[in-house]
Fold:
Amino acid sequence: MNTRTDSITDFTPVDQDLYAAAVQLLDPDPTPAPARPAALAAPAQVPLTATAPVRLTGPVEKTLTDALTFLDTHGWTRYSLINTEGARCSIGALRAAAGSRNAAYCDAGNLLLDEARRQHGKKWEAIPAWNDSHSGAQVRSVWEAAIRRAHHMNI
Structure:
């Protein structure tokens, strides 16, 4: 088609409100416009919150922590597994926390003894001998260090 419009100058401007009303009368229920493709859509606003990553406690760390909590609750003793007031030595607390002589109990005991040797010398052959030869503060220091090591080792 070869229609030229540049020479015609007497167009009447269209009233936009009247045009919209006419379209509404002709098509009262227009179909919705298609959704924008995902590539063109604006990205969803995601709130940025600082949440710490979830870290699970390993069985050795849990056993050591539960045993120290047991000592804090029931008391610590020397020269016996359990005294008449219910206080326990380190081995007694480990047994109470683990519930049985399972892998976590063995590994927690080995880590505790290793930490005792680090702090108090290599001469200690077993936890009971070390436990009975040190003060409550010294024993607690070893427990806390063993828990930190288990945490860092993620065990």
